[in-house]
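Narrative of activities, Objective 1.

The group set out to show that a structural description can be obtained from nothing but a protein's sequence at a throughput compatible with the screening campaign. Below is one input-output pair from the validation batch, recorded exactly as produced.
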Amino acid sequence: MDGLEKSGSQERGGTATVRGACLLTVVSPRKDEGNSPTGIIGRHLARQLLALGRQVRVLAEPDQCDGWPGTVEVVEGSVTRPLERARAFDGVEAVFLAGAHPLTVRDALGLARNAGARKIVLLSSHGPEYEEAHPPETWFWLAIEKAVERSGMAWTHIRPSAVMGAVTEGTYPATGSDWAETIRSAGVVREAFLDRGHYPFIHEEDLAAVVAAALNGDGHTGKVIEAVGLPLSTRSRVRSIATALGRDITAVESAPDESRMTWRRRGWPEGAIDVTLYALEEYGARFAELTQWTLGQRPTVQDVIGRPLRSYDDWVRENIDCFR
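Output recorded for this entry:
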């Protein structure tokens, strides 16, 4: 698609909205550490924004152009090469910036600012607080955050924990990424830190709701929202899947190096494997402390979205066909 796919105005209460469009950027799945599944989050976000009466446009890489609600305008292209699809920014009031790259993020921000956008909500990561201790030339997430802060537009950074639906899109983290296949074929899960490992997850619908709140109000301007879910044990995640399937799943603990080799064969980069193994062990060893850190974040995700968080059991029931 070279241009915009035109659609009718989204209506609410019989009156067509006159507010500017929200632009959502979506990239192909990335396995590098800290990358969230932009396609899954974006589709949930699009539906939520439409329900709020907002116009939605998507700048999506080719394999992410399908599966959007019919009233969404879709532009095929990439936020990592924004100048190639400058028209995607026309008339945009707010941008959900996901999948940006430090080398080209200023181009995207310039297009948004020149088009009259007043707000940028960035899907960031938990990398910036660690990158700050290193030379600026090595920054990735922090470089993107700094560019957004200096853009001249109102901004909100969202740093999520791992997304439950990452396993269906093939994005970070590596834990659980082969379970659908091994459960379907052999009814088994093999993974390191099976008995003591924990990992924090948030439902993609809840994360999308955090983004929607930041896009639609000014209460979170200039803030970092830690959109984090509580750490879940590996055993509890397996048990949730088994309960939903109505049959047992054999769980076998692997040595960390065995999981490393399995994930490496599946295309995971070493950095993502290192961080996954570290987090599984760290959240298990410091469970009480890190749980308290999650509970102590202000605002909480529940404060932002105004309802209880969806559970891993909820997610499994919604996606159980992946494991059949």
